[in-house]
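Adenosine kinase structure dump, as promised
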Amino acid sequence: MKKYDVFGVGNALVDIIAFIDPKFLEKQKISKGVMTLVDETRQGEILADLHDIKKELRSGGSAANTMIAIANSGGTCAYTGKVTHDTYGEFYKKDMEDAGVFFETKPDKAGHTGTCVVLTTPDAERTMLTSLGISTSLGPEDIDLERLKLSAYVYVEGYLWDGDSTKKASELSMSEAKKNGVKVAFTYSDPFCVNRSREEFIRLTKEYVDVVFCNTEEGLALSGKTDPKEAVAFIGSLAGLVFMTAGKDGAYVCENGKVTLVPGFPVKPIDTTGAGDAFAAGTLYGLTHGYSNAKSARWGNYVASRIVQEVGPRLTIHLLGRQDEILKDFKD
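structure tokens r here:
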């Protein structure tokens, strides 16, 4: 019996959320609707100009969002990311644990905890300015291998392939998982990640990965195909199980070369940020609680359909106990 359903590894970022007038973006010369990497000084300038606007804090990062949503469904998770001994770092740890996720880190005194200023305009579009801070220094020494061994799955985000030490931490997590009978789940994270690290992602998928998560754009980028079914089949030749989201149509599942489309839940989205993270959460919950692959994807589709009706990547409803009601009419 495993202590944790999933052991997550990823960037640890505090989201600083503010609702703004679009004129603020014009004033600060910020490109609307995109994520931009900024340094601490630039982010400080923006925050100073937001001093009269109410702000909310959330622990974040792609894989962290997934762990929180798994816990929301009733699963058990541990998460590893890098923060430091500052106000944001202390907040991050408490917020993760309040969300039901065991958060572990070996804090450094130097540097600052990574932050992402999330500016939301009345049209529900989000503009993000990210200062990665100390999150980029996550290294192999930060991975608690004993806790990893107590987990059914390890889940690693592709965003970590932007740094040498984070790459090493990720590959160590994967290799130790394989040695100890822990299944490896890997998300390709973003088409830009795939394009930058395509050959490495292919190698990792072949060598370590049991379960791949991606969206259609990422799948097409990795496979070099133009048809989604061909893309997911290509990735399925690298790993035994692949889940590829397809927006309102649901998600493709490829198991041992067989491709099926699991239908989604039609909703009117107001913010698609975090949809992929939520899908992975629901699917991993299913895989660790005895669901079939298709039923797991169906629950993943439901969790994703709920998150796109919220502003931000955190659900305001509790999913624990809703599975039977939502899935009662689903036939594999």
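Residues 160 and 166 are 5 Å apart (CA to CA).
lmk if u need the other ones
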